[in-house]
Input
Amino acid sequence: MGVLIALGLAFVLADWQLFQLTMVVSYAIALLGLNMLTGYSGQISLGHGAFYAVGAYTAGVLMTIAPIPYWATIPAAALVAFVVGYLFGRPALKLEGLYLALATFALGVALPQLLKYKLLEPWTGGVQGLILMKPDAPFGLPLNPDQWLYLFSLAVGLLLFGLAANLLNSGSGRALRALRDHPMAAESMGIDLSHYKSLIFGVSAAYTGVGGALSAIAVQFVSPDSFTLFLSISLLVGIVVGGVGTFWGALVGALFIMFVPSFAEQISKSAPWAIYGCILIAVVFLMPKGVAGTRFPRPSRNAR
Output
């Protein structure tokens, strides 16, 4: 039923509202990736905005320089982000807790500066960034670009959410939860901690990269200043508000990221971030497990 409603919105909402929903989908995919890493495997990341940037720039470079069709940049962004995430996660295996968070924080800080590096300007556009073209609907479908991109993003989102559900409900998903709840017990039962930690870091980065690619196509522009550390913090806020370790918390968190800052600005144009902070504090105090965590609480470890 929810899918049918989401599809119907493409034909009743204005173009700017469809753009907002497309961004919600892109954020939801990125938050699902971060939640798989933090909520399901217990690894903290403060730099997932870097993987969002990797996906966005992969789509931007391929669309402007190659050029490659927009739809082909989505799997390419997933692949590139997976490789970057896996290569970063492999040496980071020796780090845990706050030390891992600090390492990912450093990644989030460093990447925007690297994108401005002169030797990379022919591909990244340097501080000027890259301008993209919003795709038209294929096969002569009677849809404008905003309608088509929303439906395309929705299809990608449904596919990735389905794949994530299968992963988290499989033996690998149970291994990840064991890794989160009791690493020593998991290792004693034969779970390869190095393999699963690296793999989930790569998968998480791939999801976030796809979200970044969809956002780049929707916004039609990418630049290093679009992927500041605030983006990484916003993604972390999204999974906390939505519910750490909850599947549908990603969607709730995406709605929060997209609409609450605008709502706060409508309340007070002089101090919008103060209003945003008050709303965030209220949500954390009233629903400490997140919106989805309060509505659909995670089963107790002692439950049989």
